[in-house]
Amino acid sequence: MAVIAWIGLGNMGGSMSVNLATAGHEVRGFDLNAEAVAAAEAGGVKPAGSIADAVAGADVVFTMLPKGEHARAVYLGEDGVLAHADTRTLLVDSSTIDIASAQALHDAAAAAGFRFVDAPVSGGMSGAKAATLTFMIGGEAGAVAEATEYIRPMAANIIPTGGATTGQAAKICNNLMLFINLASTAEGAVLADRLGLDKQVFWDIASVSSGDSWALRTWYPVAGVVPTAASNNDFAPTFTTELANKDIGLAISAARDTGTPLEIGEHVQQLFQRLIDSGKAGMDCSAIVKLVDGTLDS
Ligand code: NAD
């Protein structure tokens, strides 16, 4: 069994690291948030006092952090991974970050003699808990193959995407589609209600019809229909509006770089921005339904 360092024990990283511990690995977790550390500890992860403590003697380091700036700080900072890990340690970043940051991490890791892959995930908090995530992995083929073996206990699908940063490219495009689907699901759900349809009856129809999507089946924004949905829980976050806005912003920025018009994506970003401006940045992103059903002030 391997020694695994895990940095970033939040909504996703908490469950993912616990699944590796459950698989029998020694997992050493580090997070700035004491509550996140305690929750992972309850699942079998050993708390580490610093990044240096977590990575000492590790076979592999996983990171699951909010944004590119956090990933850069954790890998490149004075107290960071590259400064303290041994170069035999494989480095796997599963955060969703901008391509420029991902490329900077690949370059810095290679210059320091490390194997590094970008390995973002899809499947949400429910997929992280159930160990059914899809991983998309970019990097040198040997490092991707090595990472695959460590990833298995967390994943239903592991898909190599090509060279450095292609995992992030796949993830950014996937999430552009996810958030557009989420916005359209919110509109369909509220309109169905106003037309007098029972919420369960409408969901039963849409989920086996052409309106189906992962957002509909996992994040349905009306309470009492889908067990994994944050709508059942007053929109307590499984994926915050702030992170959703970040992801759709990554797509828009990549689209600008490539001359790709994203008219729908840009509109959905404006919707997330309105939610954030109303003080809902920390709420689940499926609260986008509030812009449709008129409950923005609640
Ligand atoms: P989160 O905010 O719940 O967790 C991030 C954790 O990183 C927090 O606990 C935070 O304290 C920690 N952290 C930040 N800076 C740190 C540092 N310097 N050192 C140690 N810990 C640090 O976010 P999340 O929902 O778990 O998402 C993590 C990443 O996964 C994001 O990039 C997100 O876009 C992506 N993602 C999220 C989901 C989802 O459904 N939540 C799904 C797929 C991918």
From TrEMBL:
Query: Which pathway does it serve?
Result: Amino-acid degradation
Gene Ontology MF term list = 3-hydroxyisobutyrate dehydrogenase activity
Database matches in InterPro entries: 6-PGluconate_DH-like_C_sf (IPR008927), 6PGD_dom2 (IPR013328), 6PGDH_NADP-bd (IPR006115), HIBADH (IPR011548), HIBADH-like_NADP-bd (IPR029154), HIBADH-related (IPR015815), NAD(P)-bd_dom_sf (IPR036291)
Q: Give every 6-phosphogluconate dehydrogenase NADP-binding domain span.
A: 4-161
Q: Does the keyword NAD apply?
A: yes
Outline the extent of the 3-hydroxyisobutyrate dehydrogenase-like NAD-binding domain. 166-291
List the NCBIfam families.
HIBADH
Q: Which family does it belong to?
A: Belongs to the HIBADH-related family.
Q: What is this protein called?
A: 3-hydroxyisobutyrate dehydrogenase
